[in-house]
Amino acid sequence: MRNTTYNLIGFLVLLLLSISVAVYKPVNLGLDLKGGISMVLEPDYSRAVEHEYERTARFIDKTLREKNFRILDVTAHKDSIEVEYLEERELPSIANTLRETLKEITVEQMGEGILSVKFTGVYLEQLKKDIVDQTIEVLRNRIDKLGVAQPVVTRLGKERIVVELPGFLDIERAKRIIGSTASLELKLVVDSSPLREELEKKLTKNTEILPSRDGKEWFLVDKVPVVSGSDLKTAYITKDEFGAPAVGFELKSEAASKFGEFTSQNIGKRLAIVLEDRVVSAPVIRSRISDRGQITGNFTPDEVRDLSLILRTGALPTSLNILQEKVVGPSLGKDAIEQGIKAGILGFILLLVIVIARYKSAGVSATVSILMNGLLLWAGLAGLGATLTLPGIAGIILNMGIAVDSNVLIFERVKEELRLGNTLRKAIELGYRRTLSAVWDTHITLLVASLILFQFGSGPVKGFATTLAIGTIASFLSNVYYAKVFLDFLAKRGWLKV
């Protein structure tokens, strides 16, 4: 009797804690219930590989010239690098130097005086994986700054990314923030003209032509930037000398030192501030600049706010292609919630009638256990900060069915023991003891399955797995452990009928 009392006190404490959590910490609703934006993205791998070849080509050119090899040119292509050399006798040494310096390449002679350098297949696969991982990390940082509750940024397959923003309905702003590479670059201006054709005559392999932000002017600039987005320490909203919105930025210490040296050597020349391959402004360097700068360009307050956010959270490794975009209105989720509540109430009433009609006062005990199961599940979702989705609701319904099944299994076994002539108290003990292994196996199997689904599934599957895992633990606690406590309590007072 004393153990039953302690268990009932523990039940009341657990009940009060669960109610407190459920009341004071609401469950986050997913995209399908709250409305919001869903996107499927794919990084531009071909462009990323091309940039990697360009970076590697510059490194190869510098390395071979430092070792005094007679190199004519090092040219980067979309899928290879060509190294042109003068002396045939230097070929083995050049090839060995490249293989020792860069482990991720293959070197092959393409003709007299030409070597072809390519990345290995293993390296390209790892590069793709790293691009997806880095993209997911940057996007999560950006979305966190937006203040979206419980966003989903996860991998879809090997090469795609799913982004879900519950409660966020501004699709254009979402595309601007998510799709921006934040590729800030500061490049020395060689020349400028309103006509691109004039600059093409001066174009070399170390320069490129970029348009201005308004498309009215063209700039011939160095390909290699002095400072890039990865060198930024922070970015913030400010105003220019005329009071117009602008973005201020601060450089990391190493980049600040390099930038200070560069600006001191190029006073009087123009410096292009390049965003997304467009020149937003090209001021003249008047004096030495070290760790701070400002980006101006007729920005609106909203553009400045988003640009500073994007620059603060880091640059994407490559541009993103939006394969699918979808806006889910809040009315759809509202209808789903209302219909779900109605269906849940109707289903529970029918369940209550059937269980009580079948198992009498034991059915009342089962009903209390199922209600406790639902409360524990809801409190668990709220306490862990999990997001409830439509698949998650399906997980809750499945969990309720398993809870009923556990009670039915135990009650039927107790009735069998009663038919064998055992007393009510003994029938309860034997019924639980002889069904516990089956109930235990069921719950463990469900828990393992839900963990596997959570580990390898995407957004909706994770929602289903989360509710199923929390519900399985809650079910064992309420419908197995406390259900027996309730039966013992009723039996000791002579109120139990099965």
From TrEMBL:
Record keywords: Cell membrane, Membrane, Protein transport, Translocation, Transmembrane, Transmembrane helix, Transport
Assembly, per entry: Forms a complex with SecF. Part of the essential Sec protein translocation apparatus which comprises SecA, SecYEG and auxiliary proteins SecDF. Other proteins may also be involved.
Signal peptide coordinates: none
GO cellular component: plasma membrane
Membrane topology qualifier: Multi-pass membrane protein
Protein name in the entry: Protein translocase subunit SecD
Species of the source: Hydrogenivirga caldilitoris
Family label: Belongs to the SecD/SecF family. SecD subfamily.
GO terms, molecular function: protein-transporting ATPase activity
Function: Part of the Sec protein translocase complex. Interacts with the SecYEG preprotein conducting channel. SecDF uses the proton motive force (PMF) to complete protein translocation after the ATP-dependent function of SecA.
TM ranges: 340-359, 366-386, 392-414, 435-457, 463-483
Protein export membrane protein SecD/SecF C-terminal domain span: 319-492
Organism ancestry: Bacteria, Pseudomonadati, Aquificota, Aquificia, Aquificales
Subcellular location: Cell membrane
InterPro entries (alphabetical): SecD, SecD/SecF_arch_bac, SecD/SecF_CS, SecD_1st, SecD_SecF_C, SecD_SecF_C_bact, SecDF_P1_head
